[in-house]
């Protein structure tokens, strides 16, 4: 934080570990816990409180004393002081400019005086752990100035002295008594022979100062530290949190930093910072306005009108601030690295009922390398004391817990903070459970199994263990569900049972356990858990299981909507039949509508209880989740106009005389923006498809833009481009680290256009061999098959389907002939099942397809099934003949096809014989419905599905439905247009199908010659009503009759001689279809015909 002018600069100094309070101030500090001797008494009182709530007519209690303990030396994050720069200008400065380069994390100031121009650079380097301010004059010897430290008012008296001839030393304490801190600064310069720089004592103040005289360039490097240490924050070390005097380490750091040239230090810093930024970039159509300052642009900013440049700038500012706040020893607190006072608002603490979580919402999706300090902090300050809190306060037999306000000294207890009954603020044992969202997400986004085993799983296990112990059966409603009691919806005064927030958080916690580890105890409890989803009397999503909701409650928190965002209990709601709670009868649409009513009733984030930026940003993210672009952009722009300062800092009560800076809205803002552009909310099970929604709430102000390097859960990366409000290109790539892990089924969808690209192989885990009954029908030829290996345990792909990989290989027949083959390997969908469940499912799937394929094998138009292969970690696979093309590729070689063509399940041999493959969704005539797992909601490709298949009463595909699909394929082959080619939106396709529209109209113009009246009549008969379509035999007989009578035109695409699979592309279309290249205009970047 820097402010000033050419004559005077003031640099705010912060040391992230500098805190008052804790054991440094009071040896009795115990993390806010009761005494161990009180455990039995507290257990009795906890039981009494729960019983009172259960037996109360309205399910509440007015007072939870004695659970909150007295607060002892909680302390506060403290600023450390200032580095001041004073000089006398040679005249009136001109051309003054100051800017923050967020691509490189460098602050620059330039100005001109009569004596010359000046250039000043400021940066703090993570590799060197040192900061530098470097001033250069265009005139030799043109810079002279004084650099001096000053302390904050309210801190104890500090000592500022010269450590040596060029080094200044500041030593002081955060309180009296309190934590020791030290800052060292060293001055260096270059210039004419008479120039100098050094440390001297100021005659007036008696403090040491650094002085540069007649220099061409001068720079000061400084380092700072405290005696704080997390390594001693445990029972074995007496919870001292005290390390060594920082002096020796600081001398070493400054020595290394000062011997390196400024340019070299800057280059190292920039390289490291860009590495932390990752490969993400955002473009929302912003236009840089260099004629105005940021302050001017912010003053002109208006709600709803907006300014994409300011909105883009704030997005990147959030990235810069999070990196700057997290890459040292501790995570980001309420002030980040920008604390102004010795005692900061809300102690400058880690507030884990929204604020701490919001700080990290966007970190994983933008690939920022910022979370290691968060895990380290939780492991070393929350877990040790939190385990004691769980045992003493909750009588828990295992696990750990923290509450609403935590510091750097392992403060985990429930505290009064001066209030006789502070349940509204302090009763929040769900804090750690919410933080586990971030722990599981880190695994989900990175697939870092090593980290998960060492750090993620132990953290998650401890929190889940506490809740397994603490949940009780609901005796108020008597519905058999497990609930949290007593609970307060964060910072709401009502103390009751089964707060919606508590139940949704715990449900998502248990899901994370199930997905990350096989934990049957969690599964059993989760099935009885109240999920916190209940619709109230005015259509709202209830905040409490007992209905206390008021439509006039404008509370700043959206706690009961945590399952809408950032969680998924609401967003991906699924009713669970058989559960003894109201959710069994609810639909996802009903739950989303109830959440929308609640969101509307909660207001715009300016209420009688507060006026913060974070509450508005949270609302914006929720509106984006509901895919309401208008309300999203209104809420986002309203937040900027009302709560962000001219320097783009988020302010609490911005109209106050001295408003408070609070970093959470700055860091939550990028998450809200991202949620309007890409959504991929988690699911309760890895077996559920992951839905990726593109541009779900795109405001018109951002009509064109792009995203590069967005991380998607499951270990994927997304690049996206949009124009005129619609996606025009999307690329989804799977990380190499995912190879060897189970694939997660992915559904990419967009309200206007479905886009999905994936060319990366999923490697499946071990699965048992298929059953003996199946093996008996088809020969196991594993020993005679060899896959084409491109790298260790990686094989050459021949194709990639929704539920299987296809690899290339060779098969040595019994007569020693070697033929090329394809090996189809079925992918399992999840690992959250037992070995026996996985075995049963894979056996059923493989047996079903083998049965169908085997019964058809030998048919002229069926891909030949050769046998079974179990060589990929014993995964049962199918070996079949290798066809050089699918039908789409084959026709593409003839001439370009529309890009929405979908004929991948029809293969073409080198002698131009079309053959069918993939019978996983097929059924034998007369068989009962076969229950096999599919990777998408529809068992088929939407454009080829007949109207009746969209009926909820349909029991499965029928021969009539097959004839509809056959007509669609014939349309594509003969007329070169895909079904319903007039739209790219699958939702529109569904509407067209169910409304009775045929897949296509008869070609006109140059294409009219491709099909005559007789052939079109036969073709369109396939799209009649279900009972009026021809059977396959009737259609074949009609075709054969037309061939005999010469009523079918010459084939427009097939040539007379077989093409060479390795040769040149197949020849051009016949002359009767003219080349229209010179008659068309193609709209650039979109790929559709404009005229």
UniProtKB/TrEMBL annotation:
GO terms for biological process: carbohydrate metabolic process. One of its GO terms (molecular function) is alpha-L-fucosidase activity. Residues 1047-1072 are annotated as: Disordered. It comes from the Eukaryota. It comes from Rhizoctonia solani. Residues 792-1043 form the Protein kinase domain. It holds the Pfam family PK_Tyr_Ser-Thr. This is Protein kinase domain-containing protein.
């Amino acid at each position: 934080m820097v402010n000033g002018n050419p004559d005077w600069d003031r640099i705010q100094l912060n040391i992230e570990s500098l805190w008052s309070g804790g054991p440094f101030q009071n040896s009795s500090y115990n993390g806010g816990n009761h005494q161990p001797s009180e455990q039995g008494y507290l257990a009795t009182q906890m039981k009494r409180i729960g019983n009172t709530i259960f037996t109360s007519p309205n399910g509440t209690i007015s007072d939870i004393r004695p659970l909150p303990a007295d607060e002892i030396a909680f302390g506060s994050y403290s600023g450390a002081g200032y580095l001041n720069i004073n000089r006398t200008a040679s005249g009136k400065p001109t051309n003054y400019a100051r800017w923050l380069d967020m691509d490189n994390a460098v602050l620059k100031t330039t100005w001109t005086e009569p004596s010359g121009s000046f250039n000043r650079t400021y940066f703090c380097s993570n590799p060197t752990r040192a900061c530098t301010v470097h001033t250069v004059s265009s005139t030799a010897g043109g810079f002279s100035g004084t650099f001096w430290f000053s302390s904050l008012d309210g801190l104890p008296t500090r000592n500022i002295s010269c450590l040596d001839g060029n080094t200044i030393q500041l030593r002081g304490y955060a309180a009296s008594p309190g934590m020791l801190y030290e800052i060292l600064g060293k001055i260096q310069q270059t210039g004419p022979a008479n120039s100098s720089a050094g440390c001297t004592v100021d005659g007036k103040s008696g403090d040491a100062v650094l002085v540069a005289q007649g220099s061409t360039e001068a720079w000061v490097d400084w380092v700072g530290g405290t005696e704080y240490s997390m390594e001693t924050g445990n029972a074995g070390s007496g919870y001292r949190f005290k390390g060594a005097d920082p002096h020796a380490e600081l001398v070493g750091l400054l020595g290394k930093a000062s011997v390196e040239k400024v340019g070299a230090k800057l280059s190292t810093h920039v390289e490291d910072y860009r590495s932390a930024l990752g490969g993400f970039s955002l473009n929302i159509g912003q236009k840089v306005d260099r004629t105005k300052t940021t302050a001017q642009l912010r003053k002109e900013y208006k709600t709803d009108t907006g300014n994409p440049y300011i909105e883009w700038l704030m997005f990147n500012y959030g990235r810069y601030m999070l990196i700057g706040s997290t890459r040292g020893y501790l995570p980001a607190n309420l002030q980040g690295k920008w604390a102004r006072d010795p005692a900061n608002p809300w102690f400058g603490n880690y507030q884990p009922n929204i604020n701490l979580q919001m700080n990290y919402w966007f970190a994983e999706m933008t690939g920022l390398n910022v979370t290691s300090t968060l895990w380290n902090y939780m492991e070393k300050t929350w877990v040790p004391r939190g385990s004691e809190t769980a045992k003493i306060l909750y009588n828990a037999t295992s696990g750990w817990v923290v509450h609403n306000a935590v510091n750097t000294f392992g403060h985990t207890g429930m505290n009064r903070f001066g209030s006789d009954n502070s349940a509204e603020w302090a009763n929040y044992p769900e804090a750690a459970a919410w933080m586990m969202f971030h722990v599981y997400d880190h695994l989900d986004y990175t697939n870092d199994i090593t980290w998960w085993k060492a750090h993620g799983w132990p953290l998650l296990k401890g929190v889940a263990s506490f809740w397994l112990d603490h949940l009780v059966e609901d005796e108020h409603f008597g519905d058999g569900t497990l609930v949290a009691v007593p609970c307060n919806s964060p910072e709401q005064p009502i103390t009751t049972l089964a707060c919606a927030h508590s139940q949704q958080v715990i449900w998502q916690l248990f899901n994370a356990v199930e997905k990350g580890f096989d934990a049957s105890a969690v599964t059993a409890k989760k099935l009885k858990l109240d999920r916190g989803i209940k619709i109230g009397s005015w259509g709202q999503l209830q905040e409490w299981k007992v209905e206390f909701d008021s439509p006039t409650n404008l509370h700043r928190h959206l706690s009961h909507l945590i399952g809408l965002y950032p969680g998924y209990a609401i967003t991906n709601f699924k009713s669970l039949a058989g559960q003894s709670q109201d959710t069994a009868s609810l639909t996802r649409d009903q739950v989303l509508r109830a959440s929308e009513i609640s969101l509307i009733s909660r207001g715009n984030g300016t209420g009688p209880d507060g006026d913060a930026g974070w509450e508005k940003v949270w609302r914006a993210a929720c509106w984006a989740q509901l895919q309401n672009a208008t309300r999203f952009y209104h809420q986002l722009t309203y937040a900027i106009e009302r709560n962000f300062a001219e320097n783009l800092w988020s302010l609490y009560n911005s109209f106050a005389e001295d408003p408070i800076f609070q970093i959470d809205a700055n860091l939550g803002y990028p998450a809200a923006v991202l949620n309007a552009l890409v959504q991929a909310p988690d699911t309760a099970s890895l077996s559920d498809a992951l839905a990726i929604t593109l541009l779900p709430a795109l405001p018109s102000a951002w009509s064109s833009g792009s995203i590069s390097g967005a991380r998607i859960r499951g270990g994927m990366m997304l690049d996206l481009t949009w124009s005129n409000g619609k996606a025009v290109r999307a690329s989804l790539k799977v990380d190499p680290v995912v190879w060897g892990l189970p694939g997660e089924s992915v559904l990419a969808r967009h309200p206007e256009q479905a886009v999905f690209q994936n060319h990366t192989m999923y490697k499946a885990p071990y699965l048992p061999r298929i059953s003996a009954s199946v093996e008996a029908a088809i020969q196991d030829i594993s020993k005679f098959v060899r896959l084409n290996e491109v790298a260790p345990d990686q094989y050459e792909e021949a194709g990639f389907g929704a539920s299987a990989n296809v690899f290339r290989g060779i098969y040595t027949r019994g007569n020693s002939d070697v033929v090329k083959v394809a090996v189809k390997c079925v992918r399992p969908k999840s690992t959250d099942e037992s070995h026996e469940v996985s075995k049963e499912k894979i056996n059923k799937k493989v047996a079903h397809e083998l049965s169908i394929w085997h019964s058809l094998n030998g048919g002229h138009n069926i891909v030949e099934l050769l046998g079974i292969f179990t060589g990929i970690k014993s995964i049962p696979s199918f070996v079949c003949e290798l066809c050089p093309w699918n039908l789409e590729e084959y026709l593409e070689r003839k001439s370009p096809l529309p890009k929405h063509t979908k004929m991948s399940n029809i293969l073409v041999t080198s002698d131009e014989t079309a053959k069918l493959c993939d019978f996983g969704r097929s059924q034998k005539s007369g068989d009962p419905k076969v229950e096999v797992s599919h990777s998408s909601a529809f068992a088929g490709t939407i454009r080829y599905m007949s109207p009746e298949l969209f009926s909820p009463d349909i029991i499965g595909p029928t021969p009539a439905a097959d004839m509809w699909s056959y007509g669609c394929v014939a349309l594509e082959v003969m007329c070169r247009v895909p079904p319903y080619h007039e739209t790219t939106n699958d939702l529109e396709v569904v509407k067209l199908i169910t409304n009775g529209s045929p897949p296509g109209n008869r070609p006109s113009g140059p294409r009219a010659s491709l099909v005559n009246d007789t052939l079109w009549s036969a073709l369109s008969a396939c799209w009649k009503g279900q009972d009026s379509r021809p059977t396959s035999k009737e259609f074949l007989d009609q075709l054969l009759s037309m061939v005999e009578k010469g009523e079918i035109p010459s084939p427009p695409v097939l040539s007379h001689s077989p093409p060479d699979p390795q040769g040149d592309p197949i020849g051009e279309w016949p002359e009767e279809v003219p080349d229209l290249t010179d008659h068309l205009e193609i709209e650039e970047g979109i790929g559709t015909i404009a005229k």
